[in-house]
Design brief:
disordered C terminus; alpha+beta; disordered N terminus; Glycoprotein, Type 4 Pilin
């Protein structure tokens, strides 16, 4: 398996190949239950976000992420036994995002908004490994190979919150059919490709054209490249994690992001 790499600026070139990964975050996104009527009917079934994973399957994947990080810190081999669920053996793209709760949240009321800081984020945009293994590899990379952060420490490990974004396949989409909060985007032209998860424009309060332009910037392209020769593809993501609501059968999650719109997480 090729080593994961991270990206950190809007001018990076993301190839979406097995040799690279995009470094994006998971952010709050409204539940996705239907697609725009502008999308060709034959593509509806490919992009419609379904809650594919049961509560138990979600717990297994989150446990794999935590155990992988802890095994690195303890200097022992990562658990290699595959899960029994066939669903978790299917190749899928996935992003693992790590958070630490802010110190003043440790004794806060559980009904108050949950604040946390990004601690790492790396993923596979293409399905190059069984999902359970992709989660393990991206969790390890997010904890120890995200160049924006120091490696996760043993002291931090018990407090880490994991959020997973499992991606659908990519399908072509027209610019006018892109729906903010529902679609993630991949925009490419020649060797340059950029990817932004569906949650990013929601947290940044972007409209559709801004979302398209920012994805172009992520690819290192002019922000209006989507109007010309660039190829536009869309996907959806099922998002779940450790914090309340993330693995309760709701696809929305409750994730926060950096304030800088050009950053990948």
């Amino acid at each position: 398996m090729s080593k994961l790499s991270d990206t950190d600026t809007d001018t990076d070139t993301d190839t979406l190949s097995p040799k690279r990964s995009e470094n994006l975050g998971a952010h709050k996104v409204a539940p996705c239950v239907q697609l725009s009527s502008e999308l060709p009917p034959e593509l509806h079934s490919e992009l419609k976000l379904k809650l594919e994973f049961s509560l138990e399957q979600r717990r297994i994947l989150l446990r794999i992420a935590h155990q992988t990080i802890l095994s690195v810190l303890e200097g022992r081999p990562s658990p290699e036994a595959p899960p029994s669920s066939p669903k978790l053996l299917e190749p899928r793209g996935v992003f693992t995002t790590l958070y630490l709760p802010l110190s003043d949240d440790l004794h806060s009321d559980s009904h108050q908004e949950h604040h946390r800081q990004l601690r790492g984020c790396i993923g596979y945009a293409v399905p190059i490994a069984p999902l359970y293994r992709a989660v393990a590899e991206t969790a390890r990379a997010a904890a120890f190979e995200d160049s924006r952060f120091l490696p996760v420490t043993m002291e931090e490990a018990p407090r880490l919150e994991v959020s997973l974004s499992v991606l659908s396949g990519l399908v072509p989409i027209r610019p006018e059919a892109v729906e903010v909060g529902r679609h993630g985007l991949v925009i490419s032209q020649g060797p340059r490709r950029g990817l932004l998860l569906p949650q990013v424009p929601v947290e940044q309060n972007w409209d559709r054209e801004t979302f398209l332009g920012q994805t172009c910037r992520k690819a290192g392209l002019p922000p209006d490249a989507w109007r010309h020769a660039a190829t536009i593809e869309a996907f959806t993501a099922e998002v779940f994690g450790d914090n309340s609501g993330d693995h309760s059968g709701d696809s929305s999650g409750d994730n926060r992001r950096d304030s800088a719109p050009e950053g990948p997480c």
